[in-house]
Specification:
The chain is α/β, with parallel strands linked by helices. It is built from 13 helices and 13 strands. Strands 9-8-10-7-11-13 form a 6-stranded mixed β-sheet. α2 runs antiparallel to α10. The radius of gyration is 25 Å and the shape is globular. The N and C termini lie far apart (about 85 Å). It binds (2S)-2-hydroxybutanedioic acid. (2S)-2-hydroxybutanedioic acid (LMR) binds next to loops.
Length: about 350
Amino acid sequence: MLSIKKVFLFLLAFSLVFALTACGGGSSQGSSASGNTDGIQKLTIKISHVVAENTPKHQGALAMKEYIEKESGGKIKVQVYPNSQLFGDKDEYENLVANNVQFIIPDMAKLVGHEPGFNIPSMPFLFDGDEDAIAFWDGPKGQEIFKRLEKDGVLGLAMWPNGPKQITNNKKPIKKPEDLDGLKFRTQGGQVLEKLYSTLGAGSVSIPFSELYTALQQGTVDGQENTYSNIESKKFDEVQKYLTEMNHTRVDYVLLTNTKFWNSLNEKTKKIIQGGVEAGTKVAREQAAKLNADAKKKIEKNGYVKIHVLTPEEKEAFRKALQPVYDEYTPIIGKDIIDDAMSR
Ligand code: LMR
């Protein structure tokens, strides 16, 4: 009788422990406000970029974080590092390849050493606006360029726009091609930007974004080209005297991930992260033009730089002067790619 009681107590204790274990981490648990988290891998993902918070890139990265953390019920943590805090222009790509960071969103101009197709945003006056650039990169030729990074173990997931670039400098107002003669500019990098400045008689040097404010302040270079939101959020206008609204080249980004990391995700996890990519892309695309317009207003209000907006005639003079860039780089990038971009 006594031993039956013992067996009964043992079975009771066992079933209690079993029930608690099942509730604590098994298939019956995991539902949260945002759904069932069963089968979702526990991960910490890093997103690194070089710009400030008040930019489409950072807003897009935050949207990714919010979506992924919510939809995974907190199983996936996303850490976003802005302002080159984790990696900068010089080392972010290598660290993505090494899987030390899972997402980076570089300016395409910084990828031309890996693939010349990323010179597209630097081709003068190629796109009329964000919509055309998005259509190109979402289209077959843009996607073909993304695919060429697969040789490095890198996957191009989406294009995020920032927008058209404007030229700032410390020496004189720029209204015609000859005004650049003898000036020295910082560029994001790449053969096309170098050619663009040399065609206009100017010098150029590539400097990491994190060092640009100091380079402008100390006169290492006379000027630079960037979007309104990058200029305002990094206070470049504080250390420049003139700004010309050129809209001649663009800052466009590609959201990149590490192929091995991506392939290590199970179906459920990948679906959530893919959803995060879509949410981030939507926000970055929606915010780009708005943030540039807001930044322009702030720069006008600050009053540090004298702003000149190119007239249609002035723009035409630059377009003509920069034709040699097309003559040299159309065969390098590929005529089919340039034609597709021009048709947008
Ligand atoms: C720059 O270096 O000027 C930009 O490419 C920075 C960025 O990522 O927008």
